[in-house]
Amino acid sequence: MSDSTEYGWNQEMPLSLLEKIKQDLKTAMLTKNQGARNAMRLIMAEFPKLTVPLTLESGKKSTRLKKPEEITNDDIIGIINGLVKSEQTVLEIKKEATSEYLEILQQYLPRMVSREEIVAWIKENIDFSQYKNKMQAMGTIMKHFGKTADGKQVNQILQDRQ
Predict the structure, then answer these.
(1) This prediction's pTM
(2) Fewer Cβ neighbours under 10 Å: the N or C end of the chain?
(3) 99 with 145, same domain?
(4) Could you give the CA distance from residue 27 to residue 72 in angstroms, rounded to a whole number?
(5) Other CB atoms closer than 10 Å to residue 4's CB: what's the count?
(6) Could you tell me if 107 and 4 are in contact, meaning their C-beta atoms sit under 8 angstroms apart?
(7) Structural domain boundaries enclosing 40
């Protein structure tokens, strides 16, 4: 059985996350790596949730599916984050630490920033006197880090600040 280290993606790669997933699906099918193949298919099965809002001529609000060229890396990272969260919930219930599926999914996520990196950035960039309460800084912090910071962790850092 082939090693799963050939799978995964990071921002330094020359191709988009969508292209890499398609490429890895093809590799998984050729090497008969069922775990990776199933993970890629589950990610791609979530794509219909990616929609673009539009207003019809009648004035009704509707949506349409995003075309492949409209799907951004952030869209896919959002999908994978959702799948990771649901898999972690399932593993908690089963009282298991990890699964092949979870490990494959995590190879496609950007490296999460550490607590120390978040705290350092807050010290350098956030003036808490501009906010009525420290929790209002959450939006600014999350906007800076995007999907590379865990919202729960940022919330905890702000709560710990005296």
Answers:
(1) 0.74
(2) C
(3) no
(4) 22
(5) 17
(6) yes
(7) 4-106
